[in-house]
Design brief:
single chain; 370 residues; alpha/beta; TIM Barrel; eight-stranded parallel beta barrel
């Protein structure tokens, strides 16, 4: 990694350390969400495992209210206070279960959720139009049994709706008190930058978070979105930090896929990120070695690596059960050494696409590429 880039990242880490806090009695670290004033826990519990009402989400989990309540108890004990969902997770069941499990303690948590994917059969039951966003937010509020959403994110970009219509609607919802902060998810660089420019032009609420796929075996986020996040102060809320179930420590060279793996589902495999098996095993070998050095598990090492990356505000962890949750919570309260990070970087590096490989040669005027 070039010297200028290291210097740029060092500044980022110093600022992050200045703003980071830990809850007394807990190892959980709190970080600023992008350039906002909101502090969020370094780990967020995802609710994709709640419900399991269709083939896709059943492969992730089938957590019902009683178990969800227990998982939330454990999270709160550890200082994890943010919970992420979406209107399409098990056709709204995940939000409903989360809402029921949070009854009586809404004031102790942060709720983030998402919309824009198709949520009905009507022509307007999809996208980022004013019609659909208002309907979607009202539905989320009802299922979650709350008056407001702390972080509302567009689940994907809608090129068929004017950006001005989308952002003015979100700004209205913020001013109405139904949303406190806004973010996006799965945007490309130009889509996010265009949205930020429109918000600045009209003085509307701006995206402070980008919920993006990022892992040791999925580092495309670094090519452009990380630089954009640094420049525009947009925090990454990382989804699928274990590479779509590949970095659980159960998948290794020469061994059959575990029966419990979500990758047993062809639908899950086909929809998720694709990668070469040899590349995966190369990264897993490096994780195994560092797990032995640190006395931590493979998932804990993979999550800790992410928590040291620039722009990362929070990493979304999932859990089918209490054991998995406690394992993932063990990713905080310690740090990999610089040498261990370097080894993981080397094992997981991939050739850059154009123009990113070309930009690597001009560090003196382009400090952001990694």
């Amino acid at each position: 990694m070039i010297t200028v880039v290291l210097a740029e990242f060092a500044v980022h880490f110093v600022l992050n350390d200045f703003f980071n806090q830990r809850i007394k009695g807990h190892p959980m670290e709190y970080r600023r969400l992008g350039g906002s004033g909101l502090k969020v826990p370094a780990l967020t519990l995802g609710t994709g495992t709640f419900g399991g009402t269709n083939e896709f989400f059943k492969a992730w989990g089938q957590t019902e209210v009683a178990e969800a309540s227990r998982l939330i108890d454990i999270c709160l004990e550890s200082g994890l206070t943010m919970f992420d969902s979406a209107d399409i997770y098990s056709n709204g069941a995940a939000e409903s279960i989360l809402g029921q499990a949070l009854v009586g303690r809404r004031d102790k948590v942060l709720i983030s959720t998402k919309a824009t994917f198709r949520a009905g059969e009507g022509p307007n039951d999809v996208g980022s139009s004013r019609f659909h966003l208002i309907k979607a937010v009202e539905g989320c509020l009802k299922r979650l049994q709350t008056d407001y959403i702390d972080l509302f994110q567009l689940h994907g970009f809608d090129a068929s709706s004017p950006v001005e219509e989308t952002l003015s609607t979100l700004d209205d919802l913020v001013r109405a008190g139904k949303i406190r902060y806004i973010g996006c998810s799965n945007f490309s660089g130009w889509q996010l930058m265009k949205s930020l420019a429109v918000s600045e032009r009209y003085g509307w609420s701006r995206y402070v978070a980008h919920q993006a796929y990022y892992s040791l075996v999925g580092r495309d986020y670094e090519w452009e979105l990380m630089a954009l996040g640094l420049d525009q102060k947009v925090g990454a809320v990382v989804w699928s930090p274990l590479g779509w179930g590949r970095l659980t420590g159960k998948i290794r060279r020469g061994q059959p896929l575990p029966e419990s793996s979500r990758l047993q589902s062809k639908l899950v495999r086909d929809i998720g990120p694709q990668m070469d098996d040899e590349y995966l095993y190369q990264v897993v070998d490096a994780l195994d070695a560092i797990a032995k050095e640190t006395g931590k598990s493979v998932p804990q090492v993979a999550l800790n690596w992410l928590l040291q990356r620039p722009t990362v505000s929070s990493v979304i962890i999932g859990a089918r059960n209490e054991e998995q949750l406690r394992q993932n919570l063990g990713a905080v309260g310690w740090n990999l050494t610089a040498d261990q990070v370097t080894k993981l970087d080397a094992a997981s590096v991939r050739p850059f696409a154009y123009p990113y490989w070309h930009q690597q040669g001009f560090a003196e005027r382009n400090p952001f590429p990694v």
